[in-house]
Structure formats: C-alpha cells, structure tokens
C-alpha cells in the first residue's frame, strides 16, 4: 500500500465520525497539557504524551484535548502534566511516565478521582522568586 | 545530550514555536551515513550578543522564567555534535528568525539513535498555537512533505485522541512508503 493521500485522510475522518459513539469525560472540554520543554523531553514527556493519547483513544473519550506546551517550571519533576476539568481544581502532576499518564486518564478524566501521589501544586522554587 | 535525535528535534522546534514563529520549516535528510536536519523559523530571532552565548548552558534570554539561569536546548545540541564528530550552525537576526542546522555521522558509536520518527513528526504538528510547520523528509529512496495547515484542514483539529491517532496513521503511511521507495516527492492535495 502506498502513502495515504490527504483525500484519503479526509475520508478516514468522515468514516471515524460516523462509526464512533464516544464517551464524554463530563461537561465541557477537558484539557490535558503536557510540558514539553528541554527538561520534559529529556525525562520522557514525548512518551507520556503518546501514552495519554493512546489511552484516551482506547477509552473512546471524545471531549478531551491534549496539548503540548513549553517548560512549566517543574524541571525536577518532569514529565509534568496539567489537567483542567470542569468542576474540579486545576491539577499539575509531576513525574508522569507512560503508566501514570494512563492512570490519569482512567481515574482523573473518567472518574473525577485524583492520582494523589503525583500531584505537584507549585513550580520549582527558582521559578517562584 | 538528548537520548534520541527525535528528542533533539522536538526541543528545537519547540524553541522555534516559543519564539513566536508563524512558520517553521524542517528539512530532515538521511543519506545513510549522514543525517542532516535544518530547522528554520520566522520568529523573534536573536541579537549578536545572544548568538555568541546561546550554546552556553548557563545562558538564557530570561523571558520565559526570569528567575532561571540555565537554558539547555542548544547546549545539548552542541554537546551531541562535539562528542560525535558532527557539526552545527546557527543563523539568526532579531525580528527575522532563526535557522539551526546540524549534521551527524551515523557511523559514530556515540550518535544517539534516531528514535520514533513517526511519533516525533506527529508530535511536532501538535504543539499549541497557530503556527504552520512544513516538514520534508528525504532519503536516498525518495522524499515526502507534510504541512501542518493541510493536516489541520483535513482533520479539523489536531488536539483530540481521534485526530492525533489519524495523524499518526497518516505520517506512518508516508514513512512506510518512503522506506519502500514508493514516495517520490509527492505532495498531494
């Protein structure tokens, strides 16, 4: 099979739209933001990002957007992930590897339960000065 | 240094986007022995003074985190090429943009592995913001080009797991065709 064309990509999108009756993660659009500065990348944030996207797809969750941003100031606790969900406080998680990324989707996103042991509430001390 | 060439590329493209680029062009050429990557942006650029110090790990422009005194992205690049017999170059002008290029001898033992090329390219398309990104991959077997604006138009957005999964499938098919020598510079619409 040759390379997919953009026309085929558009058709794939249209067919996915029809076939998926996806699960919502509560009201509104939930955001998951992965820190992708030098520190995050070096600590494995790319793998975290792809694990979160993969778990959302597995769980068929439609109303969650996943974003990459720069350094969030948690360099000693990378990879860091911020979750913004309606009805819950904004939460920053640190040291989020593949498995913890999936756990965040399974607990925080689907069940409104925090993954307590990985919560970081503020950036590193030198960022706060 | 970063663990893979893809990690280094991701870092440099993130720098370009953070510099306010509206368009980033990436040329990624792999000739077998030599790996050549060039990232050109039209972001805020650097002064001559900053260009002189930019690969110093204890130098940063301080805009992102005023209290912080380190910046490691280009320092990692410099370390990688110096330790593996490669080369790198930086051209930058304030308000014009920055071009970073590097060349690695892939026969050198200490050159990091390429990494997951498909995930890396999909990731480059999925940063926050309104930037465009044109990426060209070229090997001795052929080449292909992907443009973020085209992908956004085709998929509607590049933020949900559904779209990101399709984006990944699209990039994977381009890579597979490239490896099989089936892609010869086509940039379809």
Could you describe the 3D structure shown?
The complex is a heterodimer of chains A (129) and B (189). By secondary structure, chain A is of the alpha+beta class. Chain A has a single domain (23-128), classed as Glutaredoxin, CATH 3.40.30.10. Chain A contains five helices and five strands. Chain A has a five-stranded mixed β-sheet with strand order 2-1-3-4-5, with helices on one face. In chain A, helix 3 packs across helix 4. The longest helix of chain A is centred in the first third of the chain and has 14 residues, at 6-19. Chain A is globular. Chain B is globular, with a radius of gyration of 17 Å. The N and C termini of chain B lie far apart (38 Å). In chain B, a hairpin with a 3-residue loop joins strand 1 (23-30) and strand 2. In chain B, 35% of the residues lie in helices and 24% in strands. Chain B is an alpha+beta fold and 189 residues long. Chain B has helices spanning 5-18, 48-53, 73-84, 117-124, 148-155, 161-179; strands at 23-30, 34-41, 87-93, 97-105, 132-139, 142-147. The longest helix of chain B is centred in the last third of the chain and has 19 residues, at 161-179. Chain B has a six-stranded mixed β-sheet. Chain B has a single domain, classed as Heat Shock Protein 90 (2-Layer Sandwich). Chain B contains six helices and six strands. The interface between A and B is large, with 43 and 51 residues.
CATH architecture type of chain A: 3-Layer(aba) Sandwich
Please, how many domains of chain B? 1
Low-confidence stretches of chain A: none
Q: What is the CATH class name of chain A?
A: Alpha Beta
Ranges of chain B where pLDDT stays below 50 over 5 or more residues in a row are none
Mean pLDDT of chain B: 88
Major sheet of chain B: size, sense and barrel closure?
6 strands, mixed
**What are the secondary-structure elements of chain B, in order, as H or E?**
HEEHHEEHEEHH
Q: In which order are the strands of the major sheet of chain A placed?
A: 2-1-3-4-5
The secondary structure category of chain B is: alpha+beta
How would you sum up the global shape of chain B?
globular
Tally of contiguous helical segments of chain B: 6
């Amino acid at each position: 099979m040759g390379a997919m064309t953009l026309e085929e990509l558009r058709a794939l999108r249209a067919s996915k739209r029809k076939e998926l009756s996806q699960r919502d993660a509560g009201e509104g659009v939930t955001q998951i933001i992965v820190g992708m500065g030098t520190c995050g990348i070096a600590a494995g944030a790319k793998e975290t990002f792809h694990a979160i996207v993969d778990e959302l797809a597995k769980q068929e969750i439609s109303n969650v957007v996943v974003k990459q941003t720069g350094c969030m100031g948690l360099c000693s606790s990378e990879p860091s992930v911020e979750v913004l969900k309606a009805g819950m406080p904004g939460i920053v998680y640190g040291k989020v590897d593949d498995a913890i990324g999936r756990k965040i989707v399974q607990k925080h996103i689907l069940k409104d339960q925090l993954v307590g042991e990985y919560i970081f509430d503020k950036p590193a001390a030198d960022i706060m000065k | 240094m970063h663990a893979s060439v893809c990690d280094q590329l991701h870092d440099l493209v993130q720098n370009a986007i953070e510099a306010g680029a509206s368009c980033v062009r990436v040329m990624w050429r792999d000739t077998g022995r030599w790996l050549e990557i060039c990232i050109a942006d039209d972001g805020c650029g650097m002064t001559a003074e900053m260009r002189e110090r930019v690969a110093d790990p204890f130098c940063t422009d301080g805009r992102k985190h005023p209290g912080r005194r380190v910046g490691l992205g280009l320092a990692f690049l410099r370390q990688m090429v110096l330790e593996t017999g490669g080369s790198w170059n930086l051209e930058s002008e304030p308000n014009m943009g920055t071009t970073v290029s590097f060349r690695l001898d892939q026969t050198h033992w200490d050159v990091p592995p390429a990494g997951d090329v498909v995930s890396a390219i999909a990731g480059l398309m999925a940063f926050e913001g309104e930037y465009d990104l044109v990426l060209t991959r070229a090997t001795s077997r052929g080449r292909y080009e992907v443009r973020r604006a085209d992908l956004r138009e085709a998929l509607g957005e590049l933020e949900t797991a559904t779209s990101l999964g399709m984006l990944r499938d699209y990039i994977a098919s381009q890579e597979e065709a490239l490896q099989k020598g089936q892609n010869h510079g086509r940039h379809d619409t």
